[in-house]
Amino acid sequence: MTVADTRFFAQGNVYLPHIAVIEKIVEETPGVRTFHFNLKDEKLREEFTFASGQFAQYSVLGVGEAPFCISSSPTRPDHLEFAVQKVGKVTNALHRLGVGSEIGFRGPYGNSFPLDYLKGKNLVFVGGGIGLAPLRSLIWNVLDNRDIYNKVDIVYGARTPVDLCFKYDLEAWDKDKTVNMVTTVDRGDDSWKGKVGVVPKILEEVAPSARESAAIVCGPPVMIRFTFPVLEKLGFAPEQMLTTLEKRMKCGIGKCGRCNIGNIYVCRDGPVFSYAQIKDFVSSEY
Ligand code: FES
What we know:
The protein is an alpha/beta fold.
């Protein structure tokens, strides 16, 4: 796991962002876009490193700043990606940007998925909606180093077919013979030929073995809340279940106290946690 890399604090000021340039925008769903970008400064761009699971603060000049995970994989370093759901002032401003627009970027922050722990294990990825964003960073990381991991199951769902994010990834993983990809929707439509049912229910049907396995879960709070008991029923211990939490973060570095849940700071101690670490408050917060 890693923490914020101080080399990337602009001029030594932790709150001063670097300039990044939007290079491509992908319309994922009517309310979700993925932005491909690069740091403007060539030297910083070359030196920049991050790990799957880390997040950053992104800003629109004159509007404000918001945290999002880095949704691309460090194994594909020619650009970075983050996905944004249009829900508020900053996210609406980000959705108004075009290719070539400049944004502020500071990070990477937080810990990351524990690759050493995951090595050699069967991996079960469970995602819902835009919650696939942090998972896809790790999934591509795993698939780009396929030999060092065992079986890979992915169970991903959204409310309706239109709400499925990263459809190009879902197709690629579906074609990959080393991956068991299961996509589901809560409500189908006339064109939908896949599974219908909420993610925890479909996960129970898929019934991955807990033996030598780890489950990585990310999605809406209600999905997370109902997925952990299913995994427990399948024999997963709390230490074998990982998730990444989202909180309204401000400083991103454990200073402002905005992101605490119980006695942990999501920005500093997370955003990646095992269920063992958070199970005492997950039912009230999630
Ligand atoms: S965002 Fe400031 S302490 Fe976590």
